[in-house]
């Protein structure tokens, strides 16, 4: 059927022994972040995860932790998963969506900054003499929600995904897959993959070299599904054949969260909390964190505070260029509007003239009518 391993539970206990031991010693910390425009179902997906697989999670807590700036506040959800004495401390970071392009185009910047800040905080803790009990919110998997337009990625998506991809394991997902037909969803995914390749956007790919054939096949199958299509819902609904499932009810039937013919939710969940959690953790540590640490080492002295992106001249430059482009666009629009206005005025004048002419024509006709009536009156009076 689906090719997914049929193991239940979190599956980490089935990891190759060596790796298992390393992580089991400390217990794994695993952090997922959701990013994307508002209204795409980010919060719903998190709740869906917790209402399906993760329902027996222990010590579930929700809190607003960080006010990133006056617009951006992230919510931190923590829970513990345990299987065969293997513990995972799961953290999910829910971000508010950034708004539309014109009004809110910088509102994603604090999210990128947040990711850097976690690397920074961890690095600082590593430099301390007491290295016990580090708090660690480095993001291991960042789900980027794509609006199901059926067209392609927007310039803003490309811009943000580029920035995220160099910092975290970026996993693109197509939001609200139930709003597209299977055919449209298929072409949409193809187009997104093409843009990701053409734009050199770095996304997370499951490693294909695996210990055994089955895992390799599994990784290939996951790769082919990227960007994962998602249906989120915490509602129990009844299907036509009488099953009760998490899903969304429509006149034509039920869009099922955990049905692989409907969306890739199961694949994504399996990747995150079963088969690739460890790879996501180690690539974050070995690639993204190492990357951050090295760049910081090269550009500043030990102990020096980090240069914030927003104060960075290069970022400023880009910012300035974008602002200029925007101003130019506004100017062009205004010119177009003025032209249109002038056209309208000319048109109005023309119509007024027509109206005048019509008026005088009417006057003339009325005068003729009067003349006729006068003539007619005379005629009758004679009789
Ligand atoms: N059709 C459809 N609607 C969804 C899906 N997931 C969430 N929604 C709806 O979209 C709206 C916004 O969801 P929410 O999770 O608050 O979006 P967020 O702003 O990204 O956190 C709500 O009305 C959800 O019920 C989905 O998979 N399909
Ligand atoms: Mg939300």
Automatic annotation (TrEMBL):
- Domain Septin-type G positions: 26-299
**Source domain of life:** Eukaryota
Name any one GO molecular function.
GTP binding
Residues annotated as coiled-coil are 316-375
Keyword GTP-binding set for record = yes
Q: Name one GO cellular component term.
A: cell cortex
- Alphabetically list the UniProt keywords: Coiled coil, GTP-binding, Nucleotide-binding
Query: Membrane-spanning regions, if any?
Result: none
Q: Could you say which protein family the record assigns here? A: Belongs to the TRAFAC class TrmE-Era-EngA-EngB-Septin-like GTPase superfamily. Septin GTPase family.
What PANTHER family does this protein's entry cite?
SEPTIN
Q: What is this protein called?
A: Septin
Recorded source organism is: Pterulicium gracile
């Amino acid at each position: 059927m689906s090719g997914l391993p049929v193991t239940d539970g979190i599956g980490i206990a089935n990891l190759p022994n060596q790796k298992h031991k390393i992580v089991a010693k400390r217990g794994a910390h695993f952090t997922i972040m959701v990013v994307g425009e508002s209204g795409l179902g980010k919060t719903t997906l998190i709740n869906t995860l917790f209402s399906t697989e993760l329902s027996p999670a222990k010590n579930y807590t929700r809190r607003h932790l960080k006010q990133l700036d006056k617009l951006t506040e992230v919510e931190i959800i923590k829970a513990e998963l345990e299987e065969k004495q293997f513990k995972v401390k799961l953290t999910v970071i829910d971000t508010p969506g950034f708004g539309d392009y014109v009004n809110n185009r910088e509102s994603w910047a604090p999210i990128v900054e947040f990711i850097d800040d976690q690397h920074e905080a961890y690095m600082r803790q590593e430099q301390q003499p007491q290295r016990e009990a580090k708090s660690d919110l480095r993001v291991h998997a960042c789900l980027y929600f794509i609006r199901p337009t059926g067209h392609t990625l927007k310039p803003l998506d490309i811009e943000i995904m580029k920035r995220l991809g160099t910092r975290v394991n970026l996993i693109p997902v197509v939001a609200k897959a139930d709003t597209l037909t299977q055919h449209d969803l298929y072409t949409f995914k193809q187009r997104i993959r093409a843009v990701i390749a053409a734009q050199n956007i770095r996304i997370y790919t499951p490693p294909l070299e695996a210990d055994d054939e089955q895992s390799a096949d599994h990784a290939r199958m996951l790769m082919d599904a990227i960007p994962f299509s998602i249906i989120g819902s915490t509602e129990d609904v009844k299907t036509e054949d009488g099953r009760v499932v998490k899903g969304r009810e429509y006149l034509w039937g039920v869009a099922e969260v955990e049905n692989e013919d409907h969306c890739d939710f199961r694949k994504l969940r399996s990747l995150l909390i079963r088969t690739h959690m460890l790879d996501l953790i180690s690539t974050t540590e070995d690639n993204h964190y190492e990357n951050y640490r090295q760049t910081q080492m090269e550009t500043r002295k030990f102990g020096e505070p980090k240069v914030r992106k927003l104060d960075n001249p290069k970022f400023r430059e880009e910012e300035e260029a974008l602002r200029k482009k925007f101003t130019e666009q506004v100017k062009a629009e205004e010119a177009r509007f003025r032209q249109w206005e002038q056209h309208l005025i000319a048109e109005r004048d023309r119509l007024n003239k027509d109206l005048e002419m019509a008026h005088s024509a009417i006057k003339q006709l009325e005068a003729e009518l009067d003349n006729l009536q006068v003539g007619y009156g005379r005629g009758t009076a004679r009789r």
